[in-house]
Amino acid sequence: MKRRTRTTYLAFILGTLALLARGQDLAPRSTALSVEQPAEQQSNLPELTLEQAVEQAVANNSSLKTASLDTLRAADDLAANKTRRFANTQVTALGAQLVTKPSVTYPAGALGVYSATGPIPATNQKVEIPRKPVGIVNVSVAQPLSTQYQLHLQLKALELGLEGTRQDQVKTRLEVVDQVRRAYYAVVEAHSALDSLQASLPYYRESHRLAVVNRGKETILESDLLNADAQLLKIQNAISDASDRVASASERLNDLMGRDVHTQFRVAAIGDADTVLTTPEAMEVRALQNRPDVKKAKLQVQQANYDARAKKAEYIPDVSLAFDYYTTANFENVFPSNVGTVGLSLRWEPWDWRRKHHEYDEKRAKEEQAKVGVGATERAVLLEVRNACRQLENARRQLTLSDANEGAARQKLKELQEKVKREAALSRDLYQAQSDLASADSQQQQALTAFWKARADLKKAIGEE
């Protein structure tokens, strides 16, 4: 009779486990995220791989679009400044109503004195222009000559600035890819923690059921039953918190991908950790060659040099080939109606109170600052690479430890399953072993995601996607 009772009890426990494995332990919560839905619904959602997440983020991320627009702006600015090397054409037109009566006086003999007629005009002649509409048009065309050298230096500086903006875009792309990788692994990690807690729930429910039974038999105290109630509530609250973390991580990933944060998806399993890595010294060399911030720092040195040389070129007088045309309308032929000139124009500031000298010194100081910035940037990159290498190695060690713990928990569960079959162990011990295995699996998954996060940071540190 006692053996039949134990067999019935074991069948009840295993049946409960089967129901729980089918997702009957927790009612589905209404949410837009796939990880909180039943397993059969999750399998119908589109699977999002890491490569797809990175591809969508590169195409739709807001930060990347802003960086791309900054590059377009710099390119347009360069194209606009290139036109300064060509002739400058200006047309000035004035149409107005005279409010005064301008006049011109021609003195006697202004047009000559002749023996037959005498002076022309014979007396002073005053010509008045009545108040009426008049017009003036002035056309000027000036082709810069001596300033071509200065314009060349300024354009070189702008070209380097454009290249620096492109390096900023590359840096933003690397940062976005790294953020997407970390966000993707965060979803996987949060999902693993949720699965572990859900796998532990049957153990706490069984403990609570046994506490109720034993309290009815008066073999435990009321405080023991209340403690079992609290522990069950605690694990249920932990599951809710873990579900919220999964939701937050999924929304963060959707945002980085530039799509609706309510988009439902399921993540793919991540691969095993790779074991082949280059030496830190080799990665430092690659980082100094690939990092966009190092490239930009070097470009800023060249740009500052061109800026200084362009400032010094301002000492050269501004000489241009100029054409001017001037015409008037409705001035009673008092003023010349058509005047055209072609020649060289000169504009020079012989004394500037050493303003240009101080501006030139300021540009040179900026160049020295840029040179100092190159060294500081390179040292910062080397420190980042070194730290990323150490973090990756530490993650690798933690992954090895979690693999060992997971293997031990799995072996223990197998042994307990054999004991339960021989009725040499309590089903509660089996629940505990299953909970321990789920926890070990979760820790192993978290260690694996931590490794891939560290691997992503190392790629970003050496300037690779």
Structural description of this entry:
With 465 residues, this protein is an alpha+beta fold. The protein has one domain (2-87, 145-317, 352-461): Outer membrane efflux proteins (OEP). It is 64% helix and 13% strand. The strands form 4 sheets. The protein has a 4-stranded antiparallel β-sheet with strand order 2-7-9-10, with no helix packed on it. Strand 9 and strand 10 form a beta hairpin. Helix 3 (50-60) packs across helix 5 (148-216) and helix 4 (62-82) packs antiparallel against helix 5. The longest helix is centred in the middle third of the chain and has 69 residues, at 148-216.
List keywords for this structure.
465 residues; alpha+beta; Outer membrane efflux proteins (OEP); two-stranded parallel ribbon; 10 strands; disordered N terminus; porin activity; transmembrane beta strand; membrane; transmembrane
Give the helices and strands, then pairings:
Blueprint: H1 2-24, H2 39-42, E1 47-48, H3 50-60, H4 62-82, E2 88-97, E3 103-106, E4 113-114, E5 118-119, E6 125-128, E7 133-144, H5 148-216, H6 222-256, E8 266-267, H7 280-290, H8 292-312, E9 318-329, E10 338-347, H9 355-421, H10 427-461
Parallel strand pairs: 1-8
Antiparallel strand pairs: 2-7, 3-6, 4-5, 7-9, 9-10
